[in-house]
Amino acid sequence: MRQRITNSLIGGALLGGLLLSSCQKQADDAAALTEQVPGATQPANFPAMAYALSQNPPDKATFELGRTLFYDARLSRDSTVSCGSCHQQFAAFANASHALSHGVGNRLGTRNSPALHNLRWRRELMWDGAVANLENQPLAPFTNPLEMGETLSSLLAKLNGDAEYRRRFTAIYGPGPIDSYRLLRALSQFLAALTSSNSRYDKAVRHEGGTTLSASESRGIALVASKCASCHATDLFTDESYRNNGLDAAFPRDSGRAQISGQPADVGRFKVPTLRNVALTAPYMHDGRFQTLAQVLAHYDHGVIASPTLDPALRPPGGRLGIALTTQEQDDLLAFLQTLTDQSFITDSRLAEHP
Amino acid sequence: MKQATIVGLPFVLLTGLLFSSCKKDSAEPPAATVGTLTIDMENVVGSAPLVLDRSTYTSPAGEPFTVSCFNYYLSNFKLQRADGSEYAVPESYFLIRERPTGPNPDNGKHFVLDSIPAGNYTGISFLIGVDEDRNMTGAQTGALSPDNYMFWTWSQGYIFLQMEGNSSRSGEPGTHMLAYHVGDFRRPNNLRIVAPPLPSGGNIQVRQGHAPTLHLRADLLRLFAGPSPALTNSVLFGPFWMAVGGSQIVPIVNNYSGSTDRHVPGTNSMFTVAAIHND
User: Fold this and answer.
1) What is the domain-level CATH number for residue A174?
2) Cα A252 to Cα B90: distance, rounded to the nearest angstrom
3) What's the pTM value of the predicted model, to 2 decimals?
4) How many CB atoms lie within 10 A of CB B60?
5) What are the extents of the domains in chain B?
6) Is the ipTM of this complex over 0.85?
7) What digits encode the pLDDT tens for the residues A189-227?
8) Nearest Cβ partner of A133 from B103, B138, B141?
9) Do A166 and A244 reside in the same domain of the chain?
10) For chain A, what is the domain count?
């Protein structure tokens, strides 16, 4: 669009300036924005975003409103639980040391709270892909009786009854009541800003600041590439597919992806999680069954259990189940997984409850 | 705009022009060549009008029941011409609710399809529910807002149609409730296209300056009986008093749409064109 206008109409610098400011304001401000709103750029080693910047252009006031909402326990039925209760920054927004999370009335959920990072790159959310768009994701915890236990109308009434929220929403979206659209758009600006791309691994692959990895860590990278990357692929370390990695023989309580797709072939399949910040997000797996990364590696080495939908990658022809890993290989993998911890992400004060 | 006032009037005019060229990507057809079509919805139960709570009806299986809630989405309207071509009405999403709840008081029974190219149309089709794409798009407003409580928030997606009521024959021993909620766009895919025939020889005449109205009737009894005895999935309230999505609800979907396939329009569905008023 800008092309067309500049070609046909550019008459003088003054006019050009006006045009830019009317039509292209967002793009021109992009540089300034990245300083104000975290996570508003594409890291060089990441794949393309699924939730593009243009879908909800980052803006400081909206991001900050999203942050307030994320940490506000009044959004739950009894004002005890916020998003931040189950998603804690120091744990890369996972729920530290909770296999299953506690919601309102101290009720226990059914799955492990995943870390929240790099959500812009996710096509589907939740362990089973129950949510196909980041913007609608908060509707799930808001209304889940095991999480925030609120109804949408009561939640919106609370927000509309708060003069400060009304002022902030109106300043961004104009006059009119706070509806679910405005609430979801604001909250998703905060969620989308949770980009974690500055681990030691990232700096090394991008050749930044002379960061290098040790011999053991480098061997770990090669091991992931050869033994894990059929699932934990790309620099996001997930191919976003649903797989059965051999945790159980049957899945009567939680069948995973099959709950969404209705296909028997999906029983026991769960979203391949990223490995980023994994050293911070114990316990592991959808039900939080493993306490340490060493236990996870032991599982792949000798704990994989057969079931009809077990992934072919974990049942090599003629061989025993799983991925054979020597002690040395396990040590190297553990060393490598530590390099995926992004200190700057978990200490970024702009993402904190009290910035 | 603020800058423009400082610079002076010529620039105001100029930027005004530029603004409009920024916004319009494609040229709209000249006004004289488009018109509107108003749809008036009427919910009935067999030959009786639908009255919530107070009227008792009899199902095709001979069981008495009342209705406390009846809501459904209609979307993706298309109008067919005699030569086989058709016009797809963009952004056509409508929520019809016998008794609206939530912040939006509109029952949706009277809605307008606008900017339709003028011409004579010999057929109409639409989707019962919300298409796959919109189930996976971000935050929505209007008919598609989750504030209307027609969106499943956990395993996310729209509720395409919902009917609730009571029956002394319900298998639910306490409240004797009935509850049928239709959704799911993956597998099973419970979306259906329906193409109710126009009254014989009738066509819809869309013209500039005219306001044709199509009177569309929805028969709730069709949840419990298909288009013909052979294609009926009989619903007995004892064993089948509730279903929320999934494959359980498929018999009801096939009954009301007269189609077992997402892509094959049902021509004998719960919807009938009662009248066309070309005014």
Assistant:
1) 1.10.760.10
2) 44
3) 0.87
4) 17
5) 35-277
6) no
7) 999 999 999 999 999 999 999 999 999 999 999 999 999
8) B138
9) no
10) 2
